[in-house]
Design goal:
The complex is a heterodimer. Chain A is mostly beta strands. Chain A is built from no helices and twelve strands. Helices cover about 0% and strands about 45% of the residues of chain B. In chain B, the strands form two sheets. In chain B, strands 2, 4, 5, 6, 9, 10 and 11 form a seven-stranded mixed β-sheet that branches. Chain B has a four-stranded antiparallel β-sheet with strand order 1-3-8-7, with no helix packed on it. Classes of the chains: A mainly beta, B mainly beta.
Chain lengths: ~110, ~120
């Protein structure tokens, strides 16, 4: 089965700082890629997804992610974070209905 | 449209007891998944149903865990007897079939059932 690696376990930023969370996966075929977010006290929800086409995808709340096939990566970015972005972020890979997650990255944004 | 619902939201039991978690997927979603997250660790895949059939149960930790999806609607996950290391949050998710034109590969998650084994 495919595996997903998220390199940062906990990231602490000040408001307005730029964010990049790394995600790499191991699977040689066609994949669907996702970033999910879990805000404190809430359930997992979709942030953005990639299936095909433009490798730069835009999601909700100003987030974007770039799929680089040659690097097996799907890093999440946001130019300027806000306190409300404090949450846990999960990268996920779906290969024909088989969805696997990374370990998650906890983001703390200081006001 | 109702989302994925899970019950109970939190269960506290003693080691050796039995707990049954329930998941109601979004209506019409053939795929149903169970995941578990032990505190601070990854969201680990447990198993995947397609309708009432177990497509993949490679993530089930041991035979103390039993998942069912009779009739292809809701699913239950029973832990018997529970051990301390079973504590965590159990997530259920559902999706439409991959072969369906409506499928985007996205999983829709419930709020999770937190299990605490004392």
């Amino acid at each position: 089965a495919q595996s997903v690696s998220q390199h940062n376990h906990h990231v602490i930023l000040s408001e307005a700082a730029s964010l990049e969370l790394g995600c790499n996966y191991s699977y040689g075929g066609t994949v669907n890629l996702f970033w999910y977010v879990q805000y404190p006290g809430q359930h997992l929800q979709l942030l953005l997804k990639y299936f095909s086409g433009d490798p730069l995808v835009k999601g909700i709340k100003g987030f974007e992610a770039e799929f680089i096939k040659s690097k097996f990566s799907f890093n999440l970015r946001k130019p300027s974070v806000q306190w409300s972005d404090t949450a846990e972020y999960f990268c996920a890979v779906n290969v024909y209905n088989d969805m696997r997650f990374g370990a998650g990255t906890r983001l703390t944004v200081k006001p | 449209e109702a989302g994925v619902t899970q019950f109970p939201s939190h269960s506290v039991i003693e080691k050796g007891q039995t707990v049954t978690l329930r998941c109601d997927p979004i209506s019409g979603h053939d795929n149903l998944y169970w995941y578990r997250r032990v505190m601070g660790k990854e969201i680990k895949f447990l198993l995947h149903f397609v309708k009432e059939s177990k497509q993949d149960e490679s993530g089930m930790p041991n035979n103390r865990f039993l998942a069912e999806r009779t009739g292809g609607t809701y699913s239950t996950l029973k832990v018997q007897p529970a051990e301390l290391e079973d504590s965590g949050v159990y997530f259920c998710a559902s999706s439409t079939p991959k072969t369906s034109g409506a499928n985007t590969g996205e999983l829709f998650f419930g709020e999770g059932s937190r299990l605490t084994v004392l």
